[in-house]
């Protein structure tokens, strides 16, 4: 955190971070225990392999209805993000 921020700004930021950190559990409740890309199903014990992908790429955009989230297994999530990196690399060659 920036030392030039006021105490009020710091408290506001901490509250926002706290609210955002719960979006994974919300997404699990809304979207269930299935990967949206490969359709692999997970159970309670293996649910840690499911991640939340933000469709618009903004991890701070956490709509309560889950409209910016997509449940992806760790493998599909890695693939999703590496595609952009590969595209950027090929475009800049």
Structural description of this entry:
The relative contact order is 0.15. The protein has a single domain (7-91), classed as 3-Layer(aba) Sandwich (His-Me finger endonuclease fold), CATH 3.40.1800. Strands 1-2 form a two-stranded antiparallel sheet. The protein has helices spanning 7-20, 23-31, 74-91; strands at residues 50-54, 69-73. It is flat, with a radius of gyration of 16 Å. The protein has 93 residues and is mainly α.
Radius of gyration: 16 Å
The CATH architecture name reads: 3-Layer(aba) Sandwich
The span between the termini is 37 Å
Q: What's the pLDDT, averaged over the residues?
A: 83
SSE topology string: HHEEH
Report the strand count: 2
Structural domain count: 1
Major sheet attributes: 2 strands, antiparallel
Q: At the first level of CATH, what is the class?
A: Alpha Beta
Structural class: mainly alpha
Percent helix range: 40-55%
Helix segment tally? 3
Residue ranges: pLDDT <50 for 5 or more in a row? none
Shape: flat
If strands are numbered along the chain, what order do they take across the biggest sheet? 1-2
CATH topology: His-Me finger endonuclease fold
């Amino acid at each position: 955190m920036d030392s030039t921020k006021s105490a009020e700004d710091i408290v506001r930021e901490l509250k926002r971070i706290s609210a955002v950190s719960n979006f994974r559990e919300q997404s699990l409740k809304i979207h269930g225990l299935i990967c949206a890309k490969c359709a692999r199903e997970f159970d309670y014990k293996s649910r840690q392999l499911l991640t939340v992908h933000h469709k618009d790429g903004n991890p701070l955009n956490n709509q309560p209805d889950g409209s910016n989230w997509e449940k992806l297994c760790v493998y599909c999530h890695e693939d999703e993000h590496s595609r952009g990196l590969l595209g950027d690399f090929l475009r800049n060659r």
